[in-house]
Write a structure and sequence with these properties.
- It is a single chain.
- By secondary structure, the protein is of the alpha/beta class.
- Helix content is about 35%, strand content about 15%.
- It has three helices and four strands; from the N terminus they run βαβαβαβ.
- The chain has helices at about 10-20, 35-45, 65-80, and strands at about 1-5, 25-30, 50, 85.
- The chain has a four-stranded parallel sheet, with helices on one face.
- Strand 1 (about 1-5), helix 1 (about 10-20) and strand 2 (about 25-30) form a beta-alpha-beta unit.
């Protein structure tokens, strides 16, 4: 199983990676910015995408914004339709998520 993790928080990634290593057959790619995530989506297929919404445009930039995560979500729908996207974020997903009754 291939997972794309879109997250810029190095501390969180440091805590997450040891747990991921325990899962047999799992491979993951980490994208730390909107642009890195867009490149990863264009380059290959992922079984699941884990997405933080509040991202910078490029790695280590300080211009974090929810709009950058929304752009990654839109690209995921375009390049990988049907791929599950799990939002793991401290930001509200309300602007891009509509609950079904």
């Amino acid at each position: 199983m291939r997972i794309l993790i879109v997250e810029d928080d190095e501390s969180f990634l440091g805590e997450l990676e040891p747990s991921l290593q325990l899962i047999a057959g799992l491979t993951w790619t980490i994208a730390r910015s909107r642009n890195a995530a867009l490149e990863a989506l264009k380059a290959g297929f992922f079984d699941t995408i884990v997405l933080d919404l509040n991202l910078p445009t490029v790695d280590r930039a300080m211009d974090t914004a929810i709009a950058h995560g929304e752009a990654v979500f839109g690209a995921a729908q375009e390049f990988s339709p049907g791929t599950p996207v799990l939002f793991l974020t401290g930001s509200s997903a309300e602007p891009i998520y509509e609950a079904e009754d």
